[in-house]
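Quick review question:
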């Protein structure tokens, strides 16, 4: 399961650190590879679930980036 799926009782309490971000980036890499593999096999319908997880991860990472502006 994606690290972006956090139980309701943990929301807002999880520490966002470099390790968490790196795990999400690595997961996204695997998701993209899986999506491409399914599409190349003509099984695009079966990759929709992976696209949803990738989308959620990307939104989560974008939210973190927006909340931590660099100078």
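Suggested answer, residue by residue:
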């Amino acid at each position: 399961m994606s690290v972006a799926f956090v139980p309701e009782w943990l929301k807002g309490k999880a520490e966002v650190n470099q390790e968490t971000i790196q795990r999400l980036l690595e997961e996204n890499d695997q998701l993209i590879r899986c999506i491409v593999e399914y599409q190349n096999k003509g099984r695009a319908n079966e990759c929709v679930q992976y696209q949803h997880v990738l989308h959620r991860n990307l939104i989560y990472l974008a939210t973190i980036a927006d909340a931590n502006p660099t100078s």
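Why it works: The chain has one domain: 18-67. Residues 16 and 64 are 8 Å apart (CA to CA).
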